[in-house]
Each structure stands twice: as structure tokens, then as C-alpha cells.
Amino acid sequence: MKYIVLGLGNFGRALAIRLTELGHEVIGADNRMSKVEELKEKITHAVRMDSTDADAMSALPLKDADAAIVAIGEDEGASLLTTALLKQLRVKRIIGRVVSDLQKTVLEAMDIDEYIMPEEESAARLAMRLDNLDIVDSFKVSERYSIIETKVPAKYIGLTLKEANLTNKYKVIVLTTIKSTEQLEDGKTKVNREATGIAHSDTVLAEGDILVLFGELKDITRLIQKGE
């Protein structure tokens, strides 16, 4: 997959490197040559450019990108203008960075419904979500083990946990399932998530549910891939 990371500060740099390590094509852009020089050997392409310049942005392969991530943090104005340009250029998936409540409000007004709060979400967690679209969130417990939220794989919909037999097949533990419901608030659709309690053998895996899994990442990835 191809990703464009705009802003190569600490967060953007870590994200661009991790996505490259996961095997993706990554174009990183920043207006500071020092940041570009740091990454030119570590990611697919690193370019110096002003992301608030419409002509410069138009030169990027935005239509081919699976997502553009605005990782600019220290300049809220530049971050918002960059996001607005991406919206204007009809980029199919835009992920904005939020460092204040006001910025979040403006992004929501632009209909940007995917955003990151680096204080709460690490670059590694975002890279994991981008690497596998079925992963909703992740948390690294130790060097070996992680907790992953993922959509219920299609082949297990309608089965109980006993029938799916995920622990024996993949060496992962299902901690709980999460159900999502949509609710209209102030003219906008809000998604509410609620855990169903500790999972047990007769828990039924329904379409749209989120599985909360504990195990080694390689085993969880195998489950997701073979469960398609």
C-alpha cells in the first residue's frame, strides 16, 4: 500500500519508518531539509516541500495513495490548511492530527472523521491500523504479547467461540467482544461502543462485532488473514 506522511517531526518520523518496515511505500514530506535528510535512507521517498502550497501538494501522487496522514503538530494553522488542501484535492482517506479541542472541532466541520491524538495514540499503533484495515486498535503489552481489537473475520460470523475454536487454532485468547451502535446527535452520526463482558464459550460472533484478542502478533495476524 502507499501512504503519504506530511510532517516529519517525532510522530511523523516514527510513523513513516514503521510503515516502511511493514513493507509499504511511504512518501514523507516536510519543509525542513534537516528532517528530510534524516529519513531519505529510511523510507521510500523523502521530499522537502511546503504542504500548505496547493501547487506543491498537487505534484504528489495523492490519487494513488491509500491514505494521507497529516502529522504536523507544532503549527496548527499549517496542519489545518494542509488538511483542507487534501480535502479539496479529493484524497480518498485523510487522517488528521489533533493537538487541541479547537482543531478537532474544525476537522469535524471539514467532515474529517479520522484523526489521531499523538498523546493518546502512538505511531506504532497507527501504523498497525494502516497495515491491516481489519485492525481497529492495538496495544503492546510486552515484547511478545499484544492486545488487538479487530473486526470479526467473515468465516466466523454466526459461530460461538466454542465452534470457532480460536484459542486452539491460533493460540490467541478472546477477552471480550464489542458491539457498535449508531446514534444521531445534533445532526451527526455518533458511534457508541460497548463491551459485552468477559467472553465465554457460548458467546456468538455477530457481524459488525469487534473482537478483543490477546496473544502474539504473528498468531493474531494469522487468524485475521485466514479468517477472511
Structural class: alpha/beta
Radius of gyration: 19 Å
Main sheet strand line-up:
3-2-1-4-5-6
Q: Structurally, how many domains make up the residues?
A: 2
Q: Class of the largest domain in CATH?
A: Alpha Beta
Q: Ranges with pLDDT <50 over ≥5 residues?
A: none
CA(first)-CA(last) distance: 18 Å
What percent strand? 25-35%
CATH A-level architecture of the largest domain: 3-Layer(aba) Sandwich
CATH superfamily of the largest domain, by name, is NAD(P)-binding Rossmann-like Domain
> Could you tell me the number of beta strands?
11
What's the tally of helices? 9
Which characteristics define this entry?
Alpha-Beta Plaits; NAD(P)-bd_dom_sf; 9 helices; 11 strands; five-stranded antiparallel β-sheet; 228 residues; Rossmann fold; alpha/beta; Trk_Ktr_HKT_K-transport; six-stranded parallel β-sheet; Potassium transporter
